[in-house]
């Protein structure tokens, strides 16, 4: 894997972690993380 691709992957992982944390911390959302494939976060408004 090239350095560019490694950087791109790290950026994507960092951004996904931020998104998941915001979804889990948002009191207006009910969120759950499912371990399907690479994982999926499902949220619904409450």
Describe the protein.
- The chain is of the alpha+beta class and 46 residues long.
- It is 50% helix and 26% strand.
- It contains one helix and two strands.
- The chain has a two-stranded antiparallel ribbon.
- It is elongated, with a radius of gyration of 13 Å.
- The termini are far apart.
- The mean pLDDT is 93.
Secondary structure layout plus pairing:
Elements: H1 3-25, E1 29-34, E2 40-45
The assigned structural class equals alpha+beta
Task: List how many beta strands DSSP finds.
Answer: 2
Number of domains: 1
How big is the Rg?
13 Å
Query: Number of DSSP helices?
Result: 1
Q: Which series of helices and strands comes N to C?
A: HEE
What strand line-up does the widest sheet have? 1-2
Poorly predicted sequence stretches spanning 5 or more consecutive residues:
none
Shape category: elongated
The average pLDDT value, as a whole number, equals: 93
* Helix percentage range: 40-55%
Largest sheet: 2 strands, antiparallel
Report the β-strand fraction as a percent range: 25-35%
The N- to C-terminal Cα distance equals: 42 Å
């Amino acid at each position: 894997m090239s350095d560019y691709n490694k950087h791109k992957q790290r950026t994507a992982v960092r951004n996904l972690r931020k998104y998941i944390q915001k979804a889990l911390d948002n009191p207006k959302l009910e969120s759950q993380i499912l371990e399907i494939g690479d994982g999926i976060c499902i949220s619904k408004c409450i």
